[in-house]
Every structure is written in C-alpha cells, then in structure tokens.
Amino acid sequence: MHACRRWLLPVVLCLCPALAAADQLAVYMLHCGGCHLADGRGNPPEVPSLRDDLGRIVQVEGGRDYLIRVPGVAQAPVSNQALADSLNWVLSQFNGATLNPEFRQLSAEEVAAARSHILADPLKRRQQIWQRYLAVAAGE
Ligand code: HEC
Prior knowledge:
Elements: H1 2-31, H2 33-36, H3 53-57, H4 63-69, H5 71-74, H6 80-94, H7 108-115, H8 122-139
C-alpha cells in the first residue's frame, strides 16, 4: 500500500501539465474552434486566422487589450481566468514562431478590465493596431 502511494504521486503530478493542455483544447474547441477551426486557421477573410499574427499584435501598444475586446472573445461565456488561460493557450499554441519569449501572460485581472469594453468596430481597431505593428517592425 505504502509502496503504491509513493509510486502514484509522481505519476499524478507528471500527468497534470498534459491534462491542463487537454483542458485548454476542450475550452478552445467549445467556444472558439467552431469559427476559428481546430488548428486556428479560421476562414479568412470572414473569420481571421489565429496563427502567427497574434504574436505580433501583442507586441504593440493596445494589442493585448485588442485580443480581449474582440466581440467573440469578450462575450465568450467563460470566467476571466478561463478566458485569460484560453488566450494564452492560443498564443503559445498557434503563435510560437512570432511570440516574444519575454511575453508576459495575460492575467484574469487584465481580462476583467478590458472585456467590458467590447469593440464596436473590431476591423477598424485591427487596422490601427496593425499599422502600429508595421511602424515598430520598420523601425527595428
Ligand atoms: C461565431 C464565430 C466566432 C467565435 C465563436 C469566436 N470568434 Fe474570434 N473572431 C470571429 C470573427 C468574425 C472575427 C473578426 C472580428 C469580428 O468581426 O468580430 C474574430 C476575431 C478574433 C480575433 C482577432 C484576430 C485578428 O487577427 O485580429 C481573435 C484573437 C479571436 N477572434 C479569438 C477568438 C477566441 C479566443 C475565441 C473563443 C474564446 C473566439 N475568437 C470565438 C469569429 C468568432
């Protein structure tokens, strides 16, 4: 019995990250994947891809807020923490190539503060943010 317990704990601890990742995939598939598809490629131009550009967007001023304030994100019927986790998962899963290694993960507090300011014109805001990104990229 004792030997068994000693064996079980490391196994359970070791499975936790894998379970957390499976959880994130389930949340994504339930609330986002219907439109943006399982691999995040969406169906442009109607439904944008969530691959690569988001890693660029979060680098510029207003970019983090923009991701939270997009209507489909802000209105997802999940808690602030679950939404922060889900966006962080989308960023690491689909934007690994563009995400700055020093990227500070979105927090539940940040989501709470931004999500009530739903964007009335997300495409216009997207263009502003993208211009900012291009200006920053050109200056580098
Ligand atoms: C009903 C379909 C639908 C669902 C569900 C949905 N989205 Fe979207 N998403 C869109 C559309 C359409 C846009 C383009 C902006 C707009 O018209 O709102 C968009 C835009 C975005 C953007 C901005 C992308 C960019 O490049 O500017 C992000 C990020 C995003 N969605 C993430 C999510 C996440 C995360 C979820 C789940 C919590 C989600 N979306 C759920 C349809 C959806």
